[in-house]
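Thread: quick sanity check before group meeting

JM: Hey all, I'm pulling together slides for Thursday and realized we never actually wrote out the predicted structure for the chain we discussed last week. Dropping the sequence here so it's in one place. If anyone has concerns about the input, flag it before I start.
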Amino acid sequence: MIELKYFLQYDGYSSCPLVTGYGKLILAEFDFNLDALETFPLDQGKERRLMYHLKKDIMPELYWNGLIKGLWNGPGAYRKLMHLGMSK
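JM (edit): ok, ran it. Output follows.
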């Protein structure tokens, strides 16, 4: 039997979408130690329309239909995939 605590362990990931203008956003992602924990392989310190649409259109769906229902455990697996396994 698989232990449930393995799947429910929080890794310290936090995401803070900062709207900087109409249709622009900086996505700040960090861990418990306030070290950058970026999911996407591009400069997330730059304003991007893509990040704005991620916050506006995708994050609410992920939150209400994934995280709250226990079906999504955060972007850790995607982060490893997008950085070819070279990040946390």
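AS: nice. The chain has a mean pLDDT of 83. Helices lie at 4-7, 49-67, 76-82.
JM: adding both to the slides.
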